[in-house]
Amino acid sequence: MLxxxxxxxxxxxxxxxxxxxxxxxxxSQVDEILNIARGYGxxxxxxxxxxxxxxxxxxxGVTYQVYLMNCTNNTxxxxxxxxAGFLDNKQTLDVINAWNRDKRFGKAYLDSDLDAxxxxxxxxxxxxxxxxxxxxxxxxxxxxxxxxxYIGYK
Length: 154
Description:
39% of the residues lie in helices and 32% in strands. By secondary structure, the chain is of the alpha+beta class.
């Protein structure tokens, strides 16, 4: 019994150390977010019209933006908004509604010019692990791949 308790305590201690060793990223670490984006293709850092950061990237020939949002003094941003718009790719509301009904991730809609758009959001307010943010970028690449096929862009 003592041996089992000691093994259990060792496991708990190892898990706590492992959790502490994970890198936490929040919206103040734009360079780290940019580095993760570059792991999926080209990406550059730009500024939005209000001065907040924006990343423009390209995955498999598809251009997208990551808007850092709800920022304080153009830093310490609370959210990421992944965005891709497809100029002159007109879809019906039935097609867009079917995507939103059948797919769990990626919010599709028609912009004011009735062009197809896809978005996805990530909350960074309290920070996320680097691994979690990398997974969000990986999910975004899958969403882009599926959506561009779905709307006939590729």
